[in-house]
What does this fold into?
Amino acid sequence: MPKKKADKELNDRAQHLLKVLVSHYISEGLPVGSKTLAKTAQMDVSPATVRNIMHELEDLGFIESPHTSAGRVPTIQGYRFFVDSLVESHPVGQKKLLDELQSQLQDDLNTHELAVSVSEFLSGVTKLAGIVTLPKVQKITLRQIEFIPLSDRRVLAILVTNDEEVQNRILNVHREFNIDELRLLSNYFNEQFSGMDIMHVREQLLSQMQDDRDGMNRLMNVAIDMAQSLFGPQSHEEDYILAGQSNLMGTDRLTNVDKLRLLFDAFNQKQEILNLLDHCVNTEGVQIFIGDESGYRIFDECSVVTSSYSIGGKPMGVLGVIGPTRMQYDRVIPIVDVTAKVLGAVLNSRG
Amino acid sequence: MPKKKADKELNDRAQHLLKVLVSHYISEGLPVGSKTLAKTAQMDVSPATVRNIMHELEDLGFIESPHTSAGRVPTIQGYRFFVDSLVESHPVGQKKLLDELQSQLQDDLNTHELAVSVSEFLSGVTKLAGIVTLPKVQKITLRQIEFIPLSDRRVLAILVTNDEEVQNRILNVHREFNIDELRLLSNYFNEQFSGMDIMHVREQLLSQMQDDRDGMNRLMNVAIDMAQSLFGPQSHEEDYILAGQSNLMGTDRLTNVDKLRLLFDAFNQKQEILNLLDHCVNTEGVQIFIGDESGYRIFDECSVVTSSYSIGGKPMGVLGVIGPTRMQYDRVIPIVDVTAKVLGAVLNSRG
DNA sequence: TTTAGCACTCACCCTGTCAGAGTGCTAGGA
DNA sequence: TCCTAGCACTCTGACAGGGTGAGTGCTAAA
It folds into this structure.
């Protein structure tokens, strides 16, 4: 039985102390000293012993002292250990939580409104910033299409997809079309493609393009011309819903105005945040980025807790919360987890 | 010639000193003392004289001292005087500004995108928060309408109005309609009402309701049923566009986290801000609220500079900036003014 | 009416002191 | 070999005291 400390391993006692320390620091926000820790840990060891162990923990990089004679504070690695050791720690209260969320999600919300509700729920219940990406609907079923002529060789296309979602796009076309031509065209589209997956529509139209175009009727030619821009990849104007940003103000060391400002600017520009969230979408379960683990400097002092939600077993989007590194992970993690499942369920039930 | 000071009036010298004091405070951010003021004002008077006048100004409530021996700081009333005395002060640089703005406003922006651009322009050029309300289009011309059946006795109505704006509404109807019925209905609507003002459509339909319904055909009856919910007052989901909120962080005394937080919460809830902006919409020219003049506590430490913009001579919306009380009014006011005019012009040119 | 001078008042900065908390180290005990 | 008690040391934060500088109010003279 090798009692000699393995360089990267912690014995049970050290692990326990580390957990207690992180937990204590999270709740109090002050560096934790050996005396306090010895008392809190309920282990019947003296502060001196605790000091020795803390020294070890510091050597291993789990904790650090802000200065010579303050207590110790968890490092990112320390938080990481703490978080990883939280396995289904607080499943309590989830039932109540679930009810609360369900009651907020009324039936007649569209997807966007649903995301807003969920984001506000997350932010409200965690007192952090909530974030919900709109579902990346990969399977878009075309239901109906209408064309309306605008001035200047532009045509407004209205796509009704997936029962209730409506998309409007303006197409620049090479000549004027009158109403009757466009009606013919929309009839053609609706007859040929209604109920089909939008990707299929595109592929089909494009493959026909390979064939001899002269052999086709005029309508078909126009349809092909339009297909590219009509069914091409779309850019949502709003890709995620953020709520409760102001909860991040004045929390902890985020009082630092410059940091906060960077963060808020990032929220507005969205791109960096989206990159991070995109990475999460295909990961099962709750994912946690602590401090700069995310690889984005903006989140230096923050942690991001996310979970992807699924429709029909396929992950379609991400939700989560953003808060200071020193957040109540034991509470937040199950909340994010359950919320993702509820949102998935709601979206599923709509077929 | 009454040289005795009228209780509420300031002689030229005092006015000048007040202006210089405010201006100096705005640029430096520090309380202004008598010596500094005497030097800056270029009036060839001694600091002692200046002190006497400052005392007067303090009695009249234009300035105040933060504590016994700091210089003086403008009160809200002082700012108000300063601002009111700025008549067309800095018309310079407007040409350049105008060009810059024009170049940013590309032709193919829809109204929403236009508002975003303008808001970002305002925030970028003033380094404050920019705000633009979406035009309150009172004259909505119906161009085309389509109905699409959804499940559960619901019908999706798509209204194309004013050439390019598209609105989607879900109607709860009393029975199922099939596609053909709905097509008949939309044909009826399009034939009868296309090109008409939407208010007229509603009135006309409602007035017909007074008549004997039994005497009408079935289609007409359905149309009347739908009219109420279809053409009723709508609620925009996004009523104004805010940009550069983060510019408000760390400015001056807004470092106060709680204040800032209140402000950001107000931005999110929108209602209070909208109330304020609504008051401005029917006012000609630039309007300025300094500190709590707006009547909203959230803006205690802020000033709001707005101007309404018009389409066809009728004010349709409001734009402006929000910043700390100590902002460069002489620069900001003409910017807001010109921007409103440009936006109006752009919207007008679209007919 | 203006100016110069003077005494006074604060806010701010720097310094020193002190208590409290926490540590590292060492020596003794289990 | 591990744990513990004790001791000396360090650092922070709060507090008090003194000096400085900017600014004021008042008064008396020009």
User: Anything to note?
Assistant: The radius of gyration of chain B is 27 Å. Residues 293 and 324 of chain B are 13 Å apart (CA to CA).
